[in-house]
Design brief:
161 residues; mainly alpha; Four Helix Bundle (Hemerythrin (Met), subunit A); globular
Length: 161
Amino acid sequence: MKQSELIDRMLATRAEFEHLLAELNLEQMTARGVAGEWSVKDILVHIAWYQTEEAELFGETGVPASSLWDTPQDARNEMLFVQNRDRPLDDALTAFRLAFEKLVGVVRNLSDEDLSSAARFPGSTAERPPWRSIAAHSYQHDREHMDMIRRWMEKMKSGEV
């Protein structure tokens, strides 16, 4: 995938996510049960963590990867939830937006070749070049969680929640 296409997808999906968030009030953003125990706020923190990690790796900042990567995904996500469940909503929103801005900035500094080269970054392979990892933790991850939020919103409207 070309850098410009990746950025376009990231920006379009994030704009859609921000529009969805604008439909929620503060109480809805912090209500449990959107995805298991998670609230919308918890989802935002979760996404921010993954995007910050991607920005560190692909931005080659020299910051070591979190040791949480050595933990299986479900356990890692649970640990992140427990560590951040009391985080204030404003802080979660700020982290969500800043992590995304940082990741977009990193992608803007990568060439099409950087994004497709399996040898360019640690953990990249021919099957999962850098652009696939970035896509998985940006617009694809955003879409996955927007779908969860939309389903929850539909349940609220129908009185199921």
